[in-house]
Amino acid sequence: MKKVLIVGAGIAGCSAALAFARSGGWDVSVIEKQPQWQFQSSGIFVYSNGLEHFHQIGAMEDLVRAGFPIPSGRNVYLHHDGRHIVDVTYPSVGSPPMPPILGVKRAEMHRVLSSQLDALGVPVHLGTTVQALQQGDAHADVRFADGSTASFDLVVGADGIRSGVRALLWPEVQPTYSGFGVWRSVHRRPPELVDKIMMMGVGKRLGIMPISDEKLYIFGTVAEPQGAWFDKARWPETMRERFAEFGGPVRPFLDEISPDTEVLYTAVEEVVMPLPWHQGRVVLIGDAAHASTPFMGQGGALAVQDAVELARLLADDAPVPTALATFGERRAPVCRFVQEASHRVGRAGAEQDPLRHAQAMQAMPASAQLHVDDFYRQLHRLSEQR
Ligand SMILES: Cc1cc2nc3c(=O)[nH]c(=O)nc-3n(C[C@H](O)[C@H](O)[C@H](O)COP(=O)(O)OP(=O)(O)OC[C@H]3O[C@@H](n4cnc5c(N)ncnc54)[C@H](O)[C@@H]3O)c2cc1C
What is the pLDDT of residues 89-135, one digit of tens each? Predict the structure, then answer.
């Protein structure tokens, strides 16, 4: 049996482990740097194109049970004060058709993925990492942090934006700061709040997303200069200040933020890495290869799609380096497209000029649905290209 080592047990790594384990023919091990499962995030939303791939690795139904699906696919756009702009409907792709949007607590997503790995008997070694990698023709030899060594037919670097695998083989590739910070907090969900809501402020966006029957999270993006730093002890207060001008449905949540509220701030970085995404028998997937700004909410989908595509390409007898080259050629155009679309949305959201902001909002009723439809059409076309 061929042996694969997956480095990193995030969305990409857990999904890849499930995809390889279910494809048969692979002895799968996962290593994860953190000594215990812990997740620096409140919630995540996944659109149907990502859920379709979670379905393929057998995790979609459990995820839907753990989270909050929006069967209507409705995303309500509001002005910062709560006045209505337009409703947009996200598509339901896949076979069978997937829920158009699912909100889920990140810890719940990882609980689902890790318990499925458990059920398949895939070992996840917490608290360790790769210290060195050496490649011959037939194997990649790995030295782990504890000094032990092992040989693998394939090593998958799924270790996120600050990938240690990437640092070993592509030290020249570094994350770059996107110019944006994202604030998030978790709240009790009032029963009537069942849609995804995006509120459009001048130079700021603030979203509301249900993540379970009991909870929702709010997430706000704002342009921040490089190196902007906020005292963690004051994050709740700073989040309230940053979005002070927002009213409408988000106001009660902003008002209830207190020093006890779980608030997170992230200075968003991205990774734009030219091909190849592999060297010999080592390949990068997920954020390690193509971390994107979060404006399209597609990073999780890209990670699980990478995992499914990689396992599919390696299911037949093609030499590993050839399959890895094909993997990069297929996935790079899709990931690049998402990164560029996300840039455009981020730039538009950062518009500080009130007049230009007002003009953009006026155009939204006619254009917003067309943009969504066009994005999914192009994403589908690029994903299907062989
Ligand atoms: C603010 C923000 C909001 C976002 N919101 C969304 C959203 O709503 N929807 C969406 O789809 N995407 C969203 N994204 C993007 C999404 O979070 C990422 O694209 C996704 O988590 C990538 O998964 P990954 O497994 O590649 O990386 P990660 O989730 O970062 O996982 C990497 C794993 O590798 C481990 N690791 C790191 N280094 C090592 C090492 N050296 N050795 C071993 N293990 C290691 C880490 O501990 C981690 O467990 C958002 C991103 C940000 C920044």
Answer: 999 998 888 999 999 999 999 999 999 999 999 999 999 999 999 99
Please state the rounded mean pLDDT for residues 306-314: 97
- Residue 266, ligand 1, Cβ within 6 A: yes
Rounded Cα–Cα distance for residues 288 and 271 (Å): 7
Domain boundaries of the chain, sorted by first residue: 2-41+49-68+106-174+271-348
Query: Per the omega criterion (within 30 degrees of 0), is the bond before 333 cis?
Result: no
Q: Are the CB atoms for 155 and 165 separated by under 8 Å?
A: yes
| pLDDT over threshold 70, residue 186 | yes
Q: Are 305 and 383 in contact (CB under 8 A)?
A: yes
Give residue-wise pLDDT tens across range 215-254. 999 999 999 999 999 999 999 999 999 999 999 999 999 9
CA–CA dist 204, 343 (Å, integer) = 14
The whole-angstrom distance between residue 109's C-alpha and the CA centroid of its chain comes to: 12
**C-alpha span between 343 and 226 (Å, rounded):** 16
How close is the Cα of 359 to the center of ligand 1, in Å? 35
Phi, psi of 212 (to 5 degrees): -170, 180
* C-beta 306 within 6 A of ligand 1: no
Of 94, 116, 101, 98, give the one whose Cα is nearest residue 11.
116
125 lines ligand 1 (CB under 6 A): no
Best mutation site among 30, 36, 37, 44 for ligand 1 pocket (most ligand atoms within 8 Å of CB): 44
Task: Give the pLDDT confidence of 136-164 residue by residue, as tens digits.
Answer: 889 999 999 999 999 999 999 999 999 99
CB 342 within 8 Å of CB 295:
yes
Q: What does DSSP say about strands 278-279 and 282-284: parallel, antiparallel, or unpaired?
A: antiparallel
Distance 364 CA to ligand 1 centre (A): 31
Report phi then psi at 220, rounded to 5: -125, 135
Rounded to whole angstroms, the Cα distance separating 174 from 157 reads 15
Instruction: Please give the Cα distance from 68 to 75 (Å, whole number).
Output: 14
CATH architecture of 2-41+49-68+106-174+271-348: 3-Layer(bba) Sandwich (3.50)
Phi-psi region of 180 (alpha: psi -120 to 50; beta: other; left: phi over 0): beta
Tracing tokens 């598509």 back to the chain, one arrives at 91
